[in-house]
Amino acid sequence: MKIMINGINANLRFSSAHIIPAHDSCGFIHGHSYFVDVEIEGNRSGDYDFVVDFKDVKKSVRTICKQLDHRVLIPINNNNMNFKDLGDSNNLKTLDFENRKYVEFNIENKYYKFPMEDCVLLPLKHSSAEDLSQYFAYKVFEDLIKKSYEIDSVSVCVNEGIGQGAFFKKTK
Ligand SMILES: [Zn+2]
Fold first, then answer.
1. Which of 32, 69, 75, 76 has the smallest count of CB within 10 Å of its CB?
2. 26 is annotated as an active-site residue
3. Helix (H) or strand (E) holding 121
4. Chain center to CA of 40
């Protein structure tokens, strides 16, 4: 059986700034009001025969939304971003940025410097809807497995406003 949660109606949203490095139009810093739709497939189980308790799903998604909300999204494994004093972007970990007050990087001939507290560092190649939907799906899947639900998949659509989004399905 499948349960579905609509991000607009259930208030699973966040607003963030990002850059798609080296892209013609999205290579300029800009923002989106994102919302997150979720679908979960699995067996009904437990005292109430739920696939999952909606409350548990919303809590998991909201925790991630809260981390991203009102921040600049920094995909630390992006090949077009060169971080100051740090090595190969493919192998960077969020820990490598520990104790830094600023996130500093260049993209081609543009240099950026943000206060660390304004940013969220993501272990991703891109801060696109595609990478974000994958990020959400893995995290929500992990949270629900920890709660012993018998789920087969978690699908997440991260929408960049109304009318366009990327959908990723994480299976067992
Ligand atoms: Zn964008």
1. 69
2. yes
3. strand 119-122
4. 17
> Is 41 part of the annotated catalytic residue set?
no
Residue 169 half-sphere exposure, CB side, CA atoms within 13 Å? 8
Residues 165 and 129 sit within 8 Å (Cβ to Cβ)? yes
C-alpha 54 – ligand 1 centre gap (Å): 29
59 C-alpha vs ligand 1 centroid, how far in Å?
A: 25
The three-state secondary structure class of 108 is coil
Residue 120 has what pLDDT? 98
Please count the structural domains in the chain: 1
Place 135 in a pLDDT band, splitting at 50, 70 and 90: very high
Domain of 134, CATH number, reads 3.30.479.10
User: Residue 70 and residue 14: Cα distance in Å, rounded?
Assistant: 7
Range of the domain at 40: 2-171
Give the tens place of pLDDT for each residue, 23-77.
999 999 999 999 999 999 999 988 899 999 999 999 999 999 999 999 999 999 9
pLDDT band at 144 (very low <50, low <70, confident <90, very high): very high
Q: Is the pTM of this model over 0.90?
A: yes
Taking CA atoms, 141 is separated from 42, 94, 106, 157, in Å, by: 11, 21, 34, 14
Residue of 23, 70, 108, 150 with catalytic role: 70
